[in-house]
Specification:
- This protein is mainly beta.
- It is built from ten helices and 34 strands.
- A hairpin with a 2-residue loop joins strand 9 and strand 10.
- The radius of gyration is 35 Å and the shape is globular.
- The longest helix has 29 residues.
- The N and C termini lie far apart (100 Å).
- An eleven-stranded antiparallel sheet has the order 18-23-24-25-26-27-28-31-32-33-34. A five-stranded mixed sheet has the order 11-16-17-14-15. Strands 1, 2, 5 and 8 form a four-stranded mixed sheet that branches.
Length: 638
């Protein structure tokens, strides 16, 4: 009987599997043809004006059926429905959709996408059409930046260009980014890409994002070679907007944003729960019971038991004054909730005025960005202003002059903790325990508070940073022989200043009634750090470009580059502040005076060239080269 049952079950299972396989097969076939249509094989031949196209992608629309053409431009597709549509695509050509219409053989002639191939891409010292590019270059336009409320350019560029890795140490508004192209650069030392703004080395953190027209990234050695050793790790070329000719236009955009954390840590804020876990972990590690909680609070099992009882009785009082006047704490403090705002506010305002005609044009833009900070106490506020004035004048048919002026000013307020560090999160981690409240009954700081957010609440430990930048580039461009021969040149002057005012005063706390102590009593000083940088850059280069016999394209470019920079830095520090809220070093009268200074000067000169050849826009050749000299090396090795 058991054998019969087993045989019956086996037969039934095989029968069901057969039905499932048939259904699956029928469903698979339905992907290629309806029940009333017969599947067929078709041959597609793809060519262009020069002959067969190898590697063109031929696909049946709406399915996964597809393949690429062989060296003869042919591809055979199977299981194609008679009413299907073929999609034929190839880089640099217009994509076509061709109905099959029961045809067995389909011949297609691809046409070049002249609009895409004629697009101009910014390269080193000039521009090139996409059709003539040989290097690994990627460009993004103003759509990445327009109408986006971001603090600086680096934040908008993150994720916009493949293989461009942008590293920000943190999210501070004035933080400059490190640009890396294609990952690891050199063993042990690393390296950052060279960033040029309108052909001049600069910091994108000081740039108005809404002034940017496009960003080109030169990714390989061939495209970056024209910048010499400084371009070894790639080059990022940022080009600002040019005036739009026509009627004068005025444009205003404003953004108001509220920001809140997307993810917040789930911290233990119940004092009893935290104390129980602390006791357990301390004992498991040391095999003895604790007597203190990281020197911030006395601990005993009796205290913990009393804490449990108070919690069970619903007693909310967090501070008990003992008979000897000392404070005993039974807190349930959420230090991070006290530190951070639930929401922060930012605003961004842009005004643009532009216009012109064939004889002259102008572009004026202004921006204000304000951020009210993350912290509830002594917030880290940031304000920045940008101004740009750009214009050109066609003096003669063969001569055009232009000028590009830029000014930026930013102010950043950065609060310090009592140890004069900006890393308040670390001090909350090691001193801000839930069992300890922020304040004592008399309003004084607790020991934990003084080490963490106490200095923030007092508002007397901070650094204020002001950065100013003025840059002006004056240039000319000429063209001769029907624009076949061109000479271009520019001179840039840039002056930047950075002023840092820092103040450090002791933070007081109390552990008992009438008892006042201070943290870091040796520090009661003011510091001023003033630095300035003067930079010049000169570029002069000539280009020749022509096409012979409608087949041979030549373009040659050669030029000269010269750059200088002078940096000065002065550091002055003096103790003995008369008032905790003093805002000038003149109110420090102590005997400890520290002065320091620094100076750096360098010069760089280089000659560069590029040669391009193209045969019927199909076979391309490019040479780049540069020879540099630098004062950073010994005299006989520059």
């Amino acid at each position: 009987m058991k054998k019969k049952i087993s045989k019956f079950l086996t037969t039934a299972c095989l029968f069901l599997l057969g039905i499932m396989f048939s259904a699956l097969q029928a469903r698979t076939m339905s992907d290629y043809a309806s029940p009333t249509q017969e599947r067929q094989s078709i041959t597609c031949i793809v060519s262009d004006e020069f002959g067969a196209v190898t590697g063109a992608n031929v696909k049946v629309k709406g399915t996964t059926i597809g393949n690429i053409t062989d060296t003869e431009g042919k591809v055979v597709l199977h299981n194609v429905a008679p009413d299907a549509t073929l999609v034929i695509s190839y880089v640099g050509y217009i994509t076509l959709e061709i109905p099959v219409n029961n045809q067995k053989t389909i011949s297609v002639i691809l046409r070049e996408d002249t609009q895409a191939l004629s697009e101009v891409v910014v390269v080193g010292y000039g521009t090139q059409k996409k059709i003539n590019l040989t290097g690994a270059i990627e460009q993004v336009g103003k759509e990445v930046f327009d109408n986006r409320s971001v603090t600086n350019v680096a934040q908008a560029l993150e994720g916009a260009v493949s293989n461009l890795n942008i590293s920000l140490e943190d999210g501070k508004p004035d933080r400059s980014a490190s640009f890396n192209v294609r990952g690891t650069t050199s063993i042990g030392q690393g390296g950052s890409a060279l960033v040029l703004i309108d052909g001049v080395e600069g910091d994108p953190a000081l740039l108005n994002p809404n002034d940017i027209a496009n960003v080109s990234v030169l990714k390989d050695a061939a495209s970056a070679a024209i910048y010499g050793a400084r371009g070894s790790f790639g080059v990022v070329l940022i080009t600002t907007k040019s005036p739009e000719k026509g009627k004068t236009s005025i444009n205003y955009t404003g953004n108001f944003s509220m920001r809140s954390p997307t993810v917040t840590p789930d911290n233990v804020t119940d004092g009893v729960t935290w104390a129980e876990h602390f006791r357990e972990s301390f004992y498991n590690f040391n095999r003895v019971l604790p007597t203190k909680i990281n020197a911030q609070q006395e601990y005993s099992d009796e205290w913990l038991e009393k804490f449990r009882q108070r919690k069970a009785q619903g007693i909310k009082e967090e501070v008990v004054i003992e008979d000897n006047g000392t404070y005993t704490y039974y807190g349930n403090t959420d230090w991070y909730d006290l530190l951070y705002k639930d929401q922060s506010f930012a605003q961004d305002h842009n005004v643009t005025i532009q216009g012109g005609n064939e004889k002259g044009d102008f572009y004026i833009s202004g921006r204000y960005y304000g951020f009210d900070g993350l912290y509830n106490y002594n917030p880290d506020t940031y304000d920045s202003y940008n101004l740009r004035a750009k214009g050109s004048l066609q003096v003669f048919d063969w001569l055009k002059v232009n000028n590009n002026m830029e000014f930026s000013n930013s102010d950043y307020h950065q609060p310090y903790v009592s140890s004069y560090s900006i890393n308040i999160q670390r001090y909350i981690e090691v001193t801000g325990f839930p069992t300890i409240p922020v304040s004592n009954p008399d309003g004084s700081h607790t020991y934990s508070s003084a080490y963490s957010i106490g200095a923030f609440k007092d508002g007397n430990n901070y650094q204020d940073t002001n950065k100013k930048l003025f840059k002006n580039t004056a240039g000319f461009s000429t063209n001769f022989f029907n624009n076949r021969f061109r000479i271009n040149g520019d001179l840039t002057l840039r002056y930047g200043t950075s002023l840092r005012d820092r103040k450090r005063v002791p933070v007081t706390y109390s552990t008992a009634v009438g008892s006042v102590s201070s943290i870091n009593t040796t520090r009661n000083d003011a510091t001023e750090i003033n630095s300035n940088t003067f930079y010049t850059a000169t570029n002069l280069y000539a280009e020749f470009e022509d096409t012979f016999n409608e087949a041979h394209y030549f373009k040659g470019m050669a030029g000269y580059n010269y750059e200088t920079q002078k940096f000065r830095d002065l550091h002055v520090e003096r103790n003995g502040l008369l008032l905790e809220d003093a805002e000038s070093i003149n109110l420090a009268l102590g005997e400890s005076i520290i002065t320091a200074a620094n100076a750096k000067n360098w010069r760089i000169a280089g000659m560069f060239f590029r040669f391009n050849y193209g045969y019927k826009d199909r076979y391309l050749l490019e040479f780049n080269g540069r020879y540099d000299g630098s004062s950073k090396f010994p005299t006989n090795e520059q």
